[in-house]
From TrEMBL:
<feature type="domain" description="GGDEF">
    <location>
        <begin position="305"/>
        <end position="438"/>
    </location>
</feature>
<dbReference type="InterPro" id="IPR043128">
    <property type="entry name" value="Rev_trsase/Diguanyl_cyclase"/>
</dbReference>
<dbReference type="InterPro" id="IPR052155">
    <property type="entry name" value="Biofilm_reg_signaling"/>
</dbReference>
<dbReference type="InterPro" id="IPR013656">
    <property type="entry name" value="PAS_4"/>
</dbReference>
<dbReference type="InterPro" id="IPR000700">
    <property type="entry name" value="PAS-assoc_C"/>
</dbReference>
<dbReference type="Pfam" id="PF00990">
    <property type="entry name" value="GGDEF"/>
</dbReference>
<feature type="domain" description="PAS">
    <location>
        <begin position="145"/>
        <end position="197"/>
    </location>
</feature>
<dbReference type="InterPro" id="IPR001633">
    <property type="entry name" value="EAL_dom"/>
</dbReference>
<dbReference type="InterPro" id="IPR000014">
    <property type="entry name" value="PAS"/>
</dbReference>
<feature type="domain" description="PAC">
    <location>
        <begin position="221"/>
        <end position="273"/>
    </location>
</feature>
<protein>
    <submittedName>
        <fullName>EAL domain-containing protein</fullName>
    </submittedName>
</protein>
<feature type="region of interest" description="Disordered">
    <location>
        <begin position="59"/>
        <end position="79"/>
    </location>
</feature>
<dbReference type="Pfam" id="PF08448">
    <property type="entry name" value="PAS_4"/>
</dbReference>
<dbReference type="InterPro" id="IPR029787">
    <property type="entry name" value="Nucleotide_cyclase"/>
</dbReference>
<feature type="domain" description="EAL">
    <location>
        <begin position="447"/>
        <end position="701"/>
    </location>
</feature>
<dbReference type="Pfam" id="PF00563">
    <property type="entry name" value="EAL"/>
</dbReference>
<feature type="compositionally biased region" description="Basic and acidic residues">
    <location>
        <begin position="60"/>
        <end position="79"/>
    </location>
</feature>
Length: 701
């Protein structure tokens, strides 16, 4: 039987014998039958076909040298070589497969007793030549693909921003990618064969010490290392060292990679520093506390509602920590955090600054006794026994209290005040609370109490508007009035504006109160105009805060349209300081009032710095001579000169003049003789309730 027919007839048997040997090849261990036979069957069938084709002596010679003609398409042998490269076979392992294939065919052929005649020898010679040709094609493809993969792999490593390297067992570089060589500013040929120490790497000694466990224990090592550069910059690298094992399992090199993680470490550091909560107590830490305090201060400034800051230090904590150990101390801190938190509202902030120091931020402190009550509740809670290691442990707390805005206007100031007050409490015997200072405490609580009461004054109808007559000097008739706010305080009695208007401005209540006064004045101006049979104007004082804020003027046009249509029944009194604040919102508000028919009066004129240009620019209608000039008129001198100058100047500008604080007939007569238009003061009447003012109008000639 010809050898070609023998191969086809015994294909499975040949492959079976071949497979038994091939499975002993190191690279083939663990591969399944299909993977081992992938191209061997095709190679044998191709050889069988080749044995049946006639060939020349030149072709025989070429095949014996592995240089037979190529069809152009990938042969089975070439595909075999490519597959073995992809599967990680070595050259020796790939050649061993062909040796096993040759041995399997020859062994079975001899067992079939094919004889040893010339024809048999010729067939075997051609078989060996064909097999050598297949081996040559397979190895050529193996080498080509292996070189290509090496080139691709090197390109991949070189293009990577990570540092990739291979060291021999003496720490000399066998391979270094472009990223690594660029650090040292050298070509690859100048880097290979050198140690990091010879290259001048600052971290050479640190990195070298990690080689020993990698080599000795054959374990991968991952670490992190700072790497200082010559320019002073210090980067951080995350590096990996991996043992490279030979076929016998011996370490023959150390490979690895290193990645610059400087940006990541910087980000982690920022995150760590900005971490919000204390790991032990789960309370806001110092960073979050400062942020919360800053936000609460801004909120209090915006809403006008005060806040309180507690600084709490534990009395006796160090003794517990020293006696029972740090674990017990940690448990004590955790229980302390829980007890303090249980005393406050959800909206309040309890924080741990560090050690045994805690803080509490109380916002919207509207009840005067709330702070003291809460401080005592915290002290009582801390005075209860703590159970630590099945023992009852007793400590106490010292609390410093400071208030915004009474004590300080900044978070730093508040924290410093509270800390100082806490030490005062501690020095005073511990287990107590102390306000920033005793004097400031009393003033602060009186102020807070008054603010709290002022918030309820308008809803509870404790506020009233009094009216002081403004007399036209030429006729002696009451033609105007100034609306003046009064507070019928339940305990303090009748309170003048100087006692509470400042608080109303600080807390933002001034807008609501001002609107209410305006409504009262507008309604009475219309009523009294009807009684008088002619226009009657009421002057309403407006706080500079209302003009200097960006909040639009409210309700003026509504009141005018409802209560005094078509009449200049209202005048707004402002100070010179409002004119000096020549901001867009001040200009817009004054223009809006003027368009509504509201006249403008400058109060206390002569005590500020308003220029004549401002008087014309803002269309002022009246100037009020400050009462300090009027009261000094009896002694003559400069006051009369100032008053007369104001009157003359105002008239030249087309303005009218009102003198306030007139208490004697002599003052009235002098002002009349000087040409002053109007006057008001105790000579005519003090400010009186609306009903009494109506009586004055009825009694007037």
């Amino acid at each position: 039987m010809p050898l070609s027919d023998f191969i086809r007839a015994n294909l499975d048997c040949i492959l079976g014998h071949w497979e038994l040997f091939a499975q002993q090849i190191p690279s083939a261990r663990g591969m399944n039958t299909a993977s081992l036979r992938d191209h061997a069957k095709g190679i044998l069938l191709a050889i069988a076909d080749d044995l049946e084709r006639p060939q020349t002596a030149l072709e025989e010679d070429a095949k014996s040298k592995g240089r037979g003609p190529h069809s152009g398409d990938d042969s089975e042998a070439e595909m075999h070589g490519a597959a073995r490269v992809a599967e990680g076979f070595s050259v020796n392992d790939a050649m061993a497969e062909y040796r096993a294939l040759r041995a399997s065919v020859l062994r079975l052929r001899r067992a079939a007793d094919a004889g040893e005649g010339p024809a048999v020898v010729a067939e075997l010679t051609r078989f060996n030549e064909a097999l050598d040709q297949a081996l040559s094609e397979s190895l050529a493809r193996f080498a080509s693909d292996n070189e290509r993969f090496t080139r691709l792999f090197d390109t991949l490593l070189s293009s990577s921003p990570d540092l990739n390297y291979v060291f021999d067992l003496d720490g000399r570089l066998i391979y270094a990618n472009k990223a690594l060589t660029s650090i040292y500013g050298r070509a690859l040929r100048d880097v290979v064969g050198k140690t990091l120490l010879e290259l001048g790497a600052p971290a050479a000694a640190d990195l070298r010490k990690y080689f020993r466990p990698v080599i000795d224990d054959k374990l991968t090592y991952r670490g992190e290392m700072p790497y200082p550069y010559a320019n002073g910059k210090k980067n951080v690298y995350d590096f990996l060292l991996v043992p490279v094992l030979s076929a016998t399992g011996k370490v023959e090199a150390v490979a690895g990679t290193a990645r610059d993680v400087t940006e990541r470490k910087e980000t982690e550091e920022r995150i760590r520093r900005s971490a919000n909560y204390d790991f032990l107590t789960d309370l806001p830490n110092r960073g979050l506390f400062r942020d919360r305090l800053e936000q609460e201060v801004k909120r209090a400034a915006r809403t006008g509602r005060p806040l309180a800051l507690f600084f709490i230090d534990l009395d006796g904590f160090k003794e517990v920590n020293d006696r029972l150990g740090h674990d017990a101390g940690d448990q004590l801190l955790q229980q302390t955090a829980h007890r303090i938190s249980a005393c406050v509202r959800d909206a309040d902030t309890v924080a741990r600054l560090g050690g045994d120091e805690f803080t509490v931020i109380l916002g919207d402190v509207s009840k005067t006794g709330h702070v003291e009550i809460l401080a005592q509740q915290i002290l009582d809670a801390l005075a209860q026994p703590f159970t630590l290691r099945n023992k009852d442990v007793y400590i106490s707390g010292s609390i410093g209290i400071t208030l915004y805005p009474q004590d300080a206007g900044t978070p730093e100031g508040l924290l410093g005040n509270a800390d100082q007050a806490m030490y005062v409490a501690k020095k005073s015997g511990r287990n107590r609370f102390s306000f920033f200072t005793a004097g400031m405490r009393d003033a602060a609580w009186a102020r807070m109490k008054l603010i709290d009461e002022l918030r309820h004054a308008l809803p509870q109808r404790q506020l009233d508007v009094y009216y002081q007559p403004i007399v036209e000097l030429a006729r002696g008739a009451t033609v105007k009035a100034e609306a003046l706010l009064r507070w019928h305080h339940p305990q303090a009695g009748l309170m003048l504006p100087d006692s509470f208007i400042g608080l109303a401005e600080e807390t933002g209540l001034i807008g609501e109160i001002g609107d209410w006064v305006l409504g009262q004045a507008a309604a009475l101006a219309r009523e009294w105009a009807a009684r008088q049979g002619g226009p009657f104007q009421i002057s309403v004082n407006k706080s500079p805060v209302e003009f200097m804020s960006k909040t639009p003027v409210r309700n003026w046009d509504t009141y005018l349209a409802r209560d005094a249509p078509g009449q200049q029944c209202l005048s707004v009194e402002i100070t010179e300081g409002v004119l000096l604040n020549d901001s867009p919102w001040v200009r817009d508000k004054l223009a809006s009032l003027h368009n509504c028919g509201v006249e403008l009066t400058i109060d206390d004129f002569g005590t500020g710095y308003a220029s004549l240009a401002y008087l014309k620019k803002f269309k002022v209608d009246y100037l009020k001579i400050d009462q300090s000039f009027v009261q000094d008129m009896d002694s003559g001198g400069d006051s009369r000169v100032f008053a007369e100058t104001i009157i003359v100047m105002a008239h030249k500008l087309g303005l009218k003049v009102i003198a306030e604080g007139v208490e004697t007939a002599e003052q009235r007569d002098w002002l009349k003789a000087a040409g002053c238009d109007y006057a008001q003061g105790y000579l005519f009447s003090a400010a009186v309730p609306a009903a009494d003012f109506m009586a004055l109008l009825g009694a007037a000639p």
